[in-house]
Amino acid sequence: MAEEEITEEGTEEPPKKKSKKGLLIGLILALALGGGGFFAAYSGLVGGAAPTTESADVEEETPVLDLPAVAFIDLDPMVISLGDGGSSRHLRFRSTLEVAPQYEADVAQLTPRVLDVLNSYLRAVDMKMLSDPKSLVQLRAQMLRRIKLVTGEGRVRDLLIIEFVLN
């Protein structure tokens, strides 16, 4: 009945337009916050800042500690043939031993044994393990363990792999 009254009177209300005020306010706030965030990140207020002059003074006052005494013994480069008969591949291997300075002469005297242990171990390792770049840490640990068995505990600190190339 109400509908009939509107049509009889002839006064129809036009549909209400949606207000765009909220959209406009949201857009302005997004731009303002985005610009503020960019400024904060660009100027270094957020996400790490360059050291100021105060922190630079503190760093200069910090004493520099001496490096521990260390000696290095270069091992002869090795070329190790790998594979079963038909597939002949080669491993080029070069390394250096980090030793305590007081044991440098002792370890240098045992380098032929160290090379023999490394050669024997690398020949026995599976080709899949040698090809995987992730296994280099495990290989290095195994080689260092074998070197420590030959040279005696406490003489060799680390094995530094200089070259490890499969051909």
Task: Report on the architecture of this protein.
- By secondary structure, the protein is α+β, with helices and mostly antiparallel strands.
- It folds into two domains: 20-65; 71-166, Tetrahydropterin Synthase, Chain A, CATH 3.30.479.
- It has helices spanning 2-9, 21-43, 53-61, 104-109, 111-124, 127-131, 136-151, and strands spanning 71-74, 78-82, 89-99, 156-166.
- Strands 1, 2, 3 and 4 form a four-stranded antiparallel β-sheet that branches.
- α5 (111-124) packs antiparallel against α7 (136-151).
- The radius of gyration is 36 Å and the shape is elongated.
- The model has no long low-confidence stretch (mean pLDDT 84).
Structure at a glance:
The protein is built from seven helices and four strands; from the N terminus they run αααβββααααβ. With 167 residues, it is α+β, with helices and mostly antiparallel strands. It folds into two domains: 20-65; 71-166, Tetrahydropterin Synthase, Chain A (2-Layer Sandwich).
What is the fold's blueprint, element by element?
Layout (H helix, E strand, L loop, with lengths): L1 H8 L11 H23 L9 H9 L9 E4 L3 E5 L6 E11 L4 H6 L1 H14 L2 H5 L4 H16 L4 E11 L1
Antiparallel strand pairs: 1-3, 2-3, 3-4
Helix pairs in contact: 5-7
What are the salient characteristics of this protein?
167 residues; alpha+beta; Tetrahydropterin Synthase, Chain A; 2 domains; four-stranded antiparallel β-sheet; 4 strands
